[in-house]
Amino acid sequence: MKPYVPNIRSGLILVGVAAFAFASVAEAKNVRWNLSLWGKKRASTSGAHAVVEDVEAKSGGTFKIKIHYNSLSKPKENLDGIKIGAFQMATFCAAYHPAKTPTLGVLDLPFLPYKDFDSKQATHEAVYAHPAVVKDMQRWNAKILMTSMLPEYEMMGKGKEPRTAADLKGMRVRALGGIGVAMKNMGAVPTTVPAPEVYTMISTGAVDGVTFPFTYAHAAYKVHEVSEWFTSNMSLGSVTCPLVINTKAWAKLSKEHQDILWNARLAGYNEYRTVYKKADAKNLPMFRAKLKEIKLSDADLAALRKAGAQPVWDQWVKEAGGKGIPAKELFDMVISKAKGM
User: What is the pLDDT of residues 20-51, one digit of tens each?
Assistant: First the structure.
């Protein structure tokens, strides 16, 4: 009988497989991600913070996400960073670069008739789950986790006061997405600049007014410090600024960690409910004490919406549809969901 001689090659393979399996388990149990944001911690990023905290708590510390402000990417380049895997998570605003994610333009339309917080959340999530939007995001290796639930936009500025719809004519206004189109329709001169640049734009007179989510963003970027007036009942609309995940990083997560991260978005939404209310309670009295509050009459609001709603909606459906986007289907779904139907 021949003496037993161990198969060294097979043994090495088994050792290698075992080592790989051990490394995979260790990696699965100790996930460390980076999340790119800009500005500083504020109401619109509180949801991301809540997600991070919920993930760490529910995973028992095996899944941690580190939030970075301004150090990983510029606001207009976060989606590019997600595409190349420079970081695993980020927030971006579709209106900063509408050509990159054209399907999301439907959520940037002005004067969408949201019934309440729940209807806005349901509307955004329905759009994010639409096959055309999923495909659009796949071009950027991105998966949308949740929306930032930005409140309706109002104006703040100095100099000429927009007391009537006609007063907007000739005004230089920082306005994004469909709100910018609506402003242009009413004779204003819209410009698109990232939020961190707004303070300088107002203080130097480069723009006359700024449209921002009311009230938190005006305070977060200290626009009130260099302004003279603010509007409180224009309700111009909002923009979509989703929190996204790199799809390759997502695929590497264990099923347990995927479920924890996906469900953490609910903690984010609950945080937004609380934080936006607190921001209004703090900021509105401060604005009223320092600035002149402008409320448009019912007649002027009607004129504003006549010029800024249906014509802009129709234009988007026509132009987006011409690019192969199921624009009418997306728009009809948004209107239905927004009304809580």
Answer: 333 344 445 799 999 999 999 998 999 999 99
Do 31-149+240-278 and 153-238+281-315 show the same overall fold?
A: yes
Q: Name the token pair of 299.
A: 């007649």
Express as a percent the part of the chain with pLDDT over 70.
92
pTM of the model: 0.81
Q: Which top CATH class is 31-149+240-278?
A: alpha beta
Superfamily (CATH H level) for 153-238+281-315? Bacterial extracellular solute-binding protein, family 7 (3.40.190.170)
